[in-house]
Design goal:
The complex is a heterodimer of chains A (340) and B (361). Chain A is an alpha/beta fold and 340 residues long. Chain A is built from eleven helices and 14 strands. Chain B is built from 14 helices and 13 strands. The chains are: A alpha/beta (340), B alpha/beta (361).
């Protein structure tokens, strides 16, 4: 079976290709927007003698380019999404791109199985209460206008997949990774805190972090993609032995570099958030409402997470959190300092 | 129309700049954003959800028919401005357009003619010219502080690796890359519209040249984009330099006007209006004073900005708020427009000449 992977040149996409090959899926078509990102894929393929890796350059904004990329594929793993840019750009590259892909998928016979890489951002956790358990039954966000653009765009993207499946039935598996980390990835999730004027605001207290190492996450996607019973199911992706935000920060300081940090307790953050939201309104948008009570409850309210459903289909982390963090922090430590 | 009537406003074109319009309209008294439209319905939907706009459409005709709009903000790429304007004014709406107004001066003229023929009004989003320092500068001009204008320098910096720059550099099909004047055409309004008000009416002498300073080769259509533009204008007793610079840092945004009585520099980024210092006292001792006098001016400008901030008048798009206030007031009262049609067409004709020189077809 030929498998199409969108966003294959990205941080997660490359790991998905690697795990597919490790699972014996050798007939792969990697979709990238920019072929400059294909070198890493070729290096991965070179390590698997039986790999038949085809690289196609497609911009999902352009519907005309998609059918040829889908032709002959029995499965699509959709990992392409926008991580930054203006709201319009993020919606174009995550939502409109997905709609274009879906249009082509439902027009393809036989319709391929679809695996969507969604996000924890789609959950509506603001009103769950602190330290509530987030699992696959947690409802989706109902107030996306109160969230960040990334979460809004990922929510709309996932909704589209469920909406299309009502009109034209096709096999759909949705994975919702938490915070994906690893060498080459970001150093801090916003759930830990934010850098500010040369210091680091530690906003996450001792909240559990929904971490998933990039290889473990890719393994989860591949296991679910290949599991016949996964059709129509959602799987949260978090690793075992999760750290809390304070532990992550402490280890980071020990193993990557010294960092001056200021802990901000949740009650103080809520107080500041109320003030910022009120000021943004009374000042007619003079300062943006970066912090609002709603966003703060979502991001720093704290939740617990479960990967039981994922384990029920045979997934297990291929690397422990302890080893994955050691490898990641060693990589961060070796990174050259960023040019200022 | 009654003076206190709340205007029903719509936006067509829900790309990046539409966010700026929606943000300003959210807080603008006397106007309500009631509908947004984009041929890509998912873009219209996201803007409507984020700004709590009741209506969203993928078809302008449907929006115009359903919403009885007083004003439509046209924030699409310029190639469709003329057609969309005709559609809006024929439906009875006034129009507020993003720059550049149209693909060329003849289209700009046709656009304004269609507005006038329908008995509607239009304006174009030259918002920096209505920012607090620009308004202060206009007041100085009116008071005769500068005397007769001799020479003008308008300088716009651009960051090709910034959010806007990346959008067009990473996408060869981005609409800016399809404009006859490419990046320059999308930015040049902000240079020319600062100069034109000082020039005697009539075609000026225009000399322009441009070059590509960056060394990177993308291997696609973006390689044809020139990134440094220099313009020299002269008309009657006034001359001007215009610069669009993509590499100098910091990314500057200034207007310097040399007059027979004083020279004044408006810094749109720092929001300062500073008179050039001069030596008023003889000898070396006399050169000791001017820097302190300049420092006093900067201190005064800082205080002014703090006051504006305290009054909640220091938003990023403060100039758009002022411009829209004036435009909407003209709609309600039939009073003067914030930017005359002659001035808009003058800008368009100079832009055509510059583009013809730097991108000869």
């Amino acid at each position: 079976m030929k498998i199409l992977i969108t966003g294959a040149g990205g941080f997660l996409g490359k790991a998905i290709v690697e795990r597919l090959l490790a699972h014996g899926q050798t007939d792969l078509r990697a979709m990238v927007r920019d072929t400059a990102k294909a070198q890493g894929l070729r290096e991965i393929a070179a390590q698997h003698l039986d790999a038949n890796l085809e690289i196609v350059s497609v911009n999902l904004r352009n519907p005309a380019q998609i059918p040829a990329a889908l032709a002959g594929c029995g499965m699509v793993i959709h990992a392409a999404a926008a991580l930054k840019g203006s709201a319009a750009e993020m919606f174009m590259d995550s939502v409109v791109a997905s709609r274009n892909l879906l249009d082509a998928i439902v027009a393809t016979q036989p319709t391929p199985r679809v695996v969507l890489v969604s996000s924890f951002g789609v959950f509506g956790v603001a009103n769950l209460g602190r330290f509530a358990l987030v699992d696959e039954s947690t409802p989706m966000e109902t107030q996306p206008q109160n969230r960040d653009i990334y979460s809004h765009s990922k929510l709309r993207q996932e909704q589209l997949f469920w909406e299309y499946r009502v009109g034209v039935p096709f096999e759909l598996v949705v994975l919702r990774p938490g915070v994906i980390y690893g060498p080459g990835g970001g150093h801090f999730s916003t759930r830990v805190g934010l850098p500010l004027f040369g210091t680091f605001l530690h906003l996450g207290g001792r909240n559990p972090l929904p971490l998933t190492f990039v290889e473990n996450c890719a393994e989860a996607i591949v296991v679910a993609a290949l599991a016949p019973s996964a059709d129509g199911e959602i799987y949260n992706v978090v690793d075992d032995d999760l750290l809390n935000a304070g532990q992550y920060l402490r280890l980071y300081k020990q193993q990557v570099k010294p960092l001056r940090s200021i802990p901000v307790p949740f009650w103080a953050l809520m107080l500041v958030s109320r003030m910022v939201e009120k000021y943004a309104h009374t000042s007619k948008g003079q300062l943006p409402a970066i912090f609002t009570p709603y966003k703060t409850r979502v991001m720093w309210g704290g939740n617990r997470f479960s990967n039981a459903k994922l384990k029920s289909i045979g997934w297990k982390p291929i690397i422990s959190t302890r080893d994955a963090l050691a490898r990641t922090f060693a990589s961060f430590h070796a990174e050259p300092p960023k040019a200022k | 129309m009654k003076q206190d009537q709340t205007l029903r406003v719509g936006i067509v074109g829900c790309g990046k700049i539409a966010d700026g319009h929606a943000e300003v309209l959210k807080f603008l008294p006397g106007a309500t954003l009631v509908a947004v439209c984009d041929r890509e319905i998912l873009l219209a939907e996201q803007l409507a959800v984020r700004f709590g706009v009741p209506g969203h459409y993928d078809n302008l005709a449907s929006m115009l028919q359903a919403e009885a709009l007083d004003v439509v903000h046209i924030t699409t790429p310029p190639a469709v401005h003329l057609a969309l304007t005709r559609q809006c004014v024929e439906a009875g709406a006034h129009v507020f357009l993003e720059k550049p107004l149209a693909l060329n001066a003849p289209d700009s003229r046709a656009l304004i003619q269609s507005v006038e023929a329908a008995g509607r009004l239009m304006s174009v989003n030259y918002w920096p010219n209505f920012d607090p320092p620009a308004m202060e500068f206009k007041q100085m001009l009116a008071q005769g502080t500068i005397g007769d204008v001799v020479h003008i320098e308008a300088f716009i910096g651009y960051d090709l690796s910034g959010a806007y720059g990346q959008a067009l550099m990473s996408d060869p099909t981005h609409w800016v890359n399809s404009l006859p004047g490419k990046l320059f055409q999308n930015m040049m309004d902000h240079i020319i519209n600062r100069i034109v008000p000082f020039l005697p009416f009539g075609p000026p002498e225009v000399h322009a040249f441009a070059y590509k300073r960056r060394e990177t080769v993308a291997g696609n259509e973006t390689d044809a984009l020139l990134d440094e533009l220099r313009i020299v204008l002269q008309s009657g007793r006034v001359s001007a330099y215009g610069t669009l610079c993509s590499h100098a840092r910091p990314v500057a945004n200034t207007l310097k006007v040399y007059g027979t009585k004083a020279t004044v520099e408006v810094d749109f980024n720092l929001r300062t209006v500073i008179r050039a210092g001069s030596q008023s006292y003889p000898s070396s001792l006399g050169r000791l004073f001017p820097p302190f006098l300049m420092a006093r001016q900067y201190f005064g400008q800082g205080r002014k900005n703090v006051s504006a901030f305290r009054r909640h008048e220091f938003q990023f798009f403060a100039g758009m708020t002022t411009l829209l206030d004036l435009f909407y007031s003209a709609i309600r009262t039939g009073g003067p427009l914030p930017i005359s049609y002659d001035e808009i067409l003058f800008v368009a004709s100079v832009m055509d000449e510059v583009i013809a020189q730097v991108y000869p077809s």
